[in-house]
Amino acid sequence: MIIAQITDTHIRIPGKLAYRRVDTAKFLAAAVAHVNALDPAPDVIVMTGDLVDFALPAEYEHFAALIAPLKAPVFLMPGNHDGRDEMRQGFPAHRYLPRQGFLNYTIEDWPVRLVAVDTLIPGEGGGEVCDERLAWLKRTLAAAPKRPTVVMLHHPPFHTGISFMDGHDLKNADKFAAVIARHPQVERIIAGHLHRSIQCRVGGTVATTCPSPAHQIVLDLRTGATLGFAMEPPGYQLHVWNDGRLVTHTVTIGRFDGPYPFREPEGKLIS
Ligand SMILES: [Fe+2]
Asked: How many angstroms does the Cα of residue 160 sit away from the middle of ligand 1?
């Protein structure tokens, strides 16, 4: 089973650039083409929030048109730039999205169970797993203790050392980690929000964040550093379930020289 994760696409209305600089629509179209060309193809595509920039219906319409060519089933989650009701209204065919309340859900159709946790606090950059969402997570994980599971959320449940983002973190991350620690079936916690590939141990399992297919957050580990973005190579991740392990690959989107062989046609190493 291959899970493709695309995150933090930040789509605006047609013709508008994000932060007056980034053509996020063009970048998402490139990501869609890249994922569609994968061989083997992913079984499922998860999009872990900040789908659009201002939660406008016209932005979701644009986003929907851009992801329409994706060949594998797509599951959407909210980030701090999204709106729950706007997502429900924008994607009526996405029936896994609850019709009211938090956008928590599970997907049970593949060998790895997907558990999506909504961390949105409307109007805030940070996120939260409140008592109600924690209780849902506890019940949900307890219902299938033997199923290998990926828990998905927009805000990573750990600090990265990027000061500004650590100030817009996940509230109750310690309680979240305590729930995860009681459920060793959780193979991975996958997140977005950081626009970079980062790994950390949380609750005894591996937690990861995924690059954006558009702009990346600058890696600046100085305390109090100003937040900025840079046009580092765009990307996404593949979480591959094979032989009882989940392996995460970060994919760079672009055209690069190669592939070239290491060996001569007769097998000798090229010298
Ligand atoms: Fe975010």
From this structure: 14
CA 244 – ligand 1 centroid, Å: 31
DSSP string, 171-213: ETHHHHHHHHHT-TTEEEEEE-SSSS-EEEEETTEEEEE---S
Gap between the Cα atoms of 87 and 64, Å rounded: 10
88 CA from centroid of ligand 1 (Å): 19
* Per-residue DSSP letter, 42: P
Is the model's pTM score more than 0.85?
yes
DSSP for residue 219: -
Ligand 1 centre distance from Cα of residue 264 (Å) = 47
pLDDT tens digits along 107-151: 999 999 999 999 999 999 999 999 999 999 999 999 999 999 999
Q: Measure 92 CA to ligand 1 centroid, in angstroms.
A: 23
Q: Domains in the chain, please, with CATH?
A: 2-252 (3.60.21.10)
CA atoms within 13 A on the CB side of 143: 11
**Per-residue pLDDT at 62:** 98
Q: For residue 228, how far is its CA from the centre of ligand 1 (angstroms)?
A: 14
